[in-house]
Amino acid sequence: MTQWLRLSRRRRLRTLVALGAVLTLTTACSSGRPGTAIPDGDAAAEYVSAKFSATLEGLANDLSADEPRKSTHRSYTRIDDKKADVTLTAIQVRSPPSRLYKNHSNRDSSDYRDYFHPAGSDVEYTLLGPVYSSLAPTQWVSMPYEDAGYGICFWGGYITVCRMLDTVSASLENRHAAKEAKSLQDGSTELTAEVTLREFIEQRVVVLPDWVLEQITGEMRDGIINTRIALDPQGKLTEIEMKGLISADGHEIEINEHYQVLDPPTEEELPKVPPADQVTALTTDEQVDDYYDRMGEITSAGG
After folding, report:
1. Which of helix, strand or coil describes residue 92?
2. How far is the C-alpha of 60 from the C-alpha of 58, rounded, in Å?
3. Torsion of CA 273, 275, 279, 285, to 10 degrees
4. Spatial separation of the C-alpha atoms in residues 89 and 127, rounded to whole Å
5. Checking DSSP bridges between strand 189-196 and strand 224-231, what pairing results, if any?
């Protein structure tokens, strides 16, 4: 049990800080003709909900496939005059896959972390930007790789898109998400939905610091975030976008999440395994916990 608790704690910390979910906020298909929308009405709402449900189930299999894939995700959040703006890039090649996940601030070029797991390796490497130079004497850090056997949504490259899909699923369960399905001229499909800020927060699409959550009132949490899911003619995910601007009780929050699937990557887009003398190896639970605690202090600053 003690070992599980340690793993659980580190996994929560990884979710919250190492994989970029916590924000540092600083001042600053229809079966009709292509292109036609599903008609309004209760029957249409039921159809769209069914379409959403089937699509979400299919996407789970799509994301789990060990095939070359690359995606980018622009994540922007603003609460009053505080904002966070990052781009998340995910790359996987080979089978079993080697994976690279990049978390780069769009406001500070020195604020970045790149996570690299070579296929079959028992360690994961992290390249630290200058903002995180206090965490280790070298630019690279390694630690035991503990994600083996877990689903794809435990990987930083997909964790946010999985949570976006979970938000739509939760909204469907509440029977108010599905809005429209449209078949486009090229055979692709576009689904639109409305989800609440409350569901967005509860599904932790973006993990907001406590000082931000304290400013988001109940009225604001009931505000709407418009969601768009785009599928290619084969039904595979190509894009998810969530946008909302919600004002109430003297505060304003802006959400803009945009995930896009890019052309498949090549192996040349992955880094080389760094030499041992350029890597600080974290090998014990105590070292890993201390590392994430100190990273958490950096990523949760700004309130």
Report:
1. strand
2. 5
3. 70
4. 14
5. antiparallel
Looking at the predicted structure, is the pLDDT value of residue 161 above 70?
A: yes
Which has more pLDDT, 36 or 144?
144
Ramachandran bin of 41, using left for φ above 0, alpha for ψ from -120 to 50, beta for the remaining angles: left
- CB 287, CB 142: distance < 8 Å: no
The C-alpha atoms of residue 134 and residue 300 are separated, in whole angstroms, by 15
Q: For residues 68 and 277, what is the distance between their CA atoms, to the nearest angstrom?
A: 31
> Which is nearest to 119 in space by CA: 103, 102, 100?
100
The CA–CA distances, whole Å, from 41 to 31, 53, 101, 172, 191 equal: 17, 18, 43, 17, 16
**Pick from 158, 113, 154: which is nearest to 131 by CA?**
113
Measured distance CA(124)–CA(273) in Å, rounded: 10
* DSSP assigned state of 282: -
pLDDT tens, residue by residue, 255-303: 999 999 999 999 999 999 999 999 999 999 999 999 999 998 888 765 4
Burial 38-71 (b: 16+ CB within 10 A, else e): beeeeebbebbbebbeebbeebeebbeeeebbbb
Give the C-alpha separation, 213 to 173, whole Å.
Answer: 24
Cα 59 to Cα 113, 187, 262, 291: the distances in Å are 27, 17, 16, 34
Q: CB of 231 within 8 A of CB of 260?
A: no
d(CA 196, CA 15): 22
DSSP SS3 for 261 = strand
User: Taking a C-beta distance cutoff of 8 angstroms, is the pair 87, 262 a contact?
Assistant: no
Asked whether residue 178 carries a pLDDT value surpassing 80, the answer given is no
The count of other CB atoms within 10 Å of the CB of residue 76 is 18
